[in-house]
Design goal:
The chain is mainly α. Helix content is 33%, strand content 0%. It contains three helices and no strands.
Length: 100
């Protein structure tokens, strides 16, 4: 490839907004943050009792958007596993303690 010479002070060949708009963006339908602000964690698994994410998952949710489907897919099974062991899950976890 041969580099094209840039003319100092000349306007760009196309507006920068056109460049950004032309980039393909992945569409992630239904990828709202699953966090419900409970943020109480199981000591053994590290899973949040409210949403099922770990602290690492929560960081990845913000920084690594391509991992969102993988994280979201794991949450129902995690919450079900926590519920089977007697933990209140979802919004109930904010109010109650583990049933022994």
């Amino acid at each position: 490839l041969r580099a094209l010479p840039l003319l100092v002070g000349s306007p760009p060949l196309w507006p920068s907004s056109c460049v950004a708009a032309s980039r393909p963006r992945p569409h992630l339908p239904g990828m709202a943050n699953p966090c419900i602000d409970v943020c109480r964690y199981d000591e053994e698994t590290g899973w949040c009792l409210g949403c099922g994410m770990t602290r690492k998952d929560k960081k990845a949710w913000k920084k690594e958007k391509e991992r969102r489907p993988e994280i979201r897919h794991a949450l129902p099974d995690r919450l079900a596993a926590l519920a089977r062991t007697g933990y209140p899950t979802g919004k109930e976890a904010k109010k109650k303690k583990r049933k022994d």
